[in-house]
UniProtKB/TrEMBL annotation:
Gene3D superfamilies: 2,3-Dihydroxybiphenyl 1,2-Dioxygenase, domain 1. InterPro entries: Glyas_Bleomycin-R_OHBP_Dase, Glyoxalase_6, VOC_core. This is VOC family protein. It comes from Xylanimonas protaetiae. Residues 10-143 form the VOC domain.
Amino acid sequence: MMSETKGIGVVESVVLDVPDVAVAGAFWEELLGGRVIQEPSDDGAWLVVGTREGWLVAAQPAPDLVPARWPSQEHPQQLHLDLRVPDLAAATSAAVAQGATLLRENATWNTLADPAGHPFDLCLSDEVDRTTVWGVTFDVPDAAVAARFWSGVLGDEIAYEGDGMAMLGGPRTVMFQQVEDYNAPAWPDPARPQQVHLDLGIGDRDPDEAEAAVLALGATRLPGGGDTFRVFADPAGHPFCLCWG
């Protein structure tokens, strides 16, 4: 873990709530060409897939997960992974064969859902020769507000802002897309649960200091947490964790 960051924390993991950790792990390991670097414990509590480009995609059990029904805002997606692929048709066919569901086709990107219902995008790119993680995209009511908050948290500059979109230019690409009639998660309300969240490592920073810093930027402290993490929501209601140890 990094001992110093230019912000409050760094993106360590993209954590998916799933009804079956083993199924999710097998899907994402094959899709990303990665490897399982942390097996679930006997109670199936945690599994982590590492990619060759350094992303960590984790799965945690959520038997009562309310999956996204994209593009509806009744049970909307909250954030999703964007993947770059060299051949869109081939990558889409492979993902479907592995258990994904095709939701929408476009000229240069397709939207699919994993076996747990989490949407993700396959984006055509001539800069890659295999499937790679490009970044994560948050659905938000105001892209500019979200970008400013997360820029402060991660210490990354805003690389783009306009047309209802924004993007941070850090080592882990984080993007924001503005949606109409935005319906925020309200974790731990079971009717409006989180689906995906980011775990942020704070290195050697004092947890109380890190908490005060994210609260000053506009975060809200949420119930839960433990000896090595605390739970918050960003201004759009997306839960995230500050982690240490």
